[in-house]
Amino acid sequence: MLHRRTVGDVMTEEVITLRPDTPFNEIAALLDANDIAAAPVVDDDGAPVGVVSSSDVLRHETGMPDAQGLDGSDERAWGKARARTAGALMSSPVFTARADWTIPRAARELHRRHVKQLPVVGDKGLLTGIVSRSDLLHTFIRSDAEIRGDVERVVLERILGLEEGTVAVEVREGTVTLRGHVPEPRLVPVVVGLCQGVDGVVAVDAHLAAARTD
């Protein structure tokens, strides 16, 4: 089977966390010292109950609901602007991911929720890691040599059982070009589909024909 990397493969396991009673000054210092954009807030059991982001810190610093200093009428936003602890400053409820999620599923969730990172939880709802947009992007930033290796060894040889040299593979800037022959015409779309499933592949240009049997 073609292995598709999951959230568990790319997430950060050593997570900087906050407690609901963590004071504001400590929050700002932790985010700055660890060069992170957000940190999950966890309860006594280690379950995430919210997230504090750098935007929340900026709102507090400006004393305004909007980080750019614009006025607002949202009482909750004003409360966060005056917050003294992580519990009052955090965004809640928290949206989470699971380690067995595929990369596309996590990307869709980040986009749907309009967030830049998701705490990752296990079966008991306890924090096991955190995954960010940059973690997901790194999945698709692979060298042409790595992609070619996966296409040749995993797709063509291991999955399809084609003899070495039957299909020539060239990869340039993530675009896979295939030239050669396959045993049957129906295998052409199968080869293309499998290659498109390799992490980092941008497009597949197939010049394949069925091998002659006479």
Describe the structure.
InterPro entries: BON_dom, CBS_dom, CBS_dom_sf, Diverse_CBS-Domain, UCP036990_CBS_BON. Residues 143-212 form the BON domain. Keywords: CBS domain. Residues 11-68, 90-146 form the CBS domain. The structure is a single chain. The chain has helices at 7-10, 24-33, 54-62, 75-81, 86-89, 103-113, 133-140, 144-159, 187-196; strands at residues 38-42, 48-53, 97-98, 117-121, 127-132, 167-172, 175-182, 203-210. With 214 residues, it is α/β, with parallel strands linked by helices. It folds into 2 domains: 7-140, CBS-domain (Roll); 144-210, Histidine-containing Protein, Chain: A, CATH 3.30.1340. A 3-stranded mixed beta sheet has the order 3-4-5. The chain has a 3-stranded mixed beta sheet with strand order 6-7-8, with helices on one face. The protein is elongated and about 75 Å long. Mean pLDDT is 87; it is low at 67-73.
Please summarize what this structure is.
InterPro entries: BON_dom (IPR007055), CBS_dom (IPR000644), CBS_dom_sf (IPR046342), Diverse_CBS-Domain (IPR051257), UCP036990_CBS_BON (IPR017080). The chain has 214 residues and is α/β, with parallel strands linked by helices.
